[in-house]
Amino acid sequence: MQHSRTKVIVFVTVAAGGAFLYYRFNPVGAGFFPKCPFYCLTGLYCPGCGSQRALHALLHGAVGQAAGYNLLAVMVLPVLAYTGLAPLATWLRGRPQGQSLLYRPWFTWSVLAATLIFWLLRNLPVPFFHWLAP
User: DSSP character for 33?
Assistant: First the structure.
């Protein structure tokens, strides 16, 4: 029981520290945020390009701006938050934990397909899909 509580405390501390870092420092102006290695090598956007700026915008309440930076990250974040917080809630209530949404095969394949489609569409040289680029 103590080991699990320590994990929760460490997770919450790291998450709060990360949220503070992204809230306080804008990834565009701060020089210590890493650049995307895929974009630096190829000039193409990966599915994660713009997600640092999107997280910064979300923490400031600018959902539209965040979606402009990385629509996929904005759409997936609530699902990840739910799948991360649901087991924590059941653990805190002392109930047995069910199977997480993340471990269902159909969900994994759906996320993979959506990510690949997003990756392809945001790099197509078609004017209609330019809004998907960060």
Answer: S
Of the two residues 39 and 1, the one the predictor is more confident about is: 39
CA distance 51 to 68: 10
What pTM did the predictor assign? 0.73
Residue-number span of the structural domain to which 46 is assigned: 2-132
Query: Rounded to an integer, what distance in angstroms lies between the CA atom of residue 46 and that of residue 134?
Result: 10
Segment of 26-40, 95-109, 116-130 carrying the highest mean pLDDT: 116-130
Distance CA(131)–CA(3), nearest Å, equals 46
3-state secondary structure of 95: coil
How many domains are contained in the chain? 1
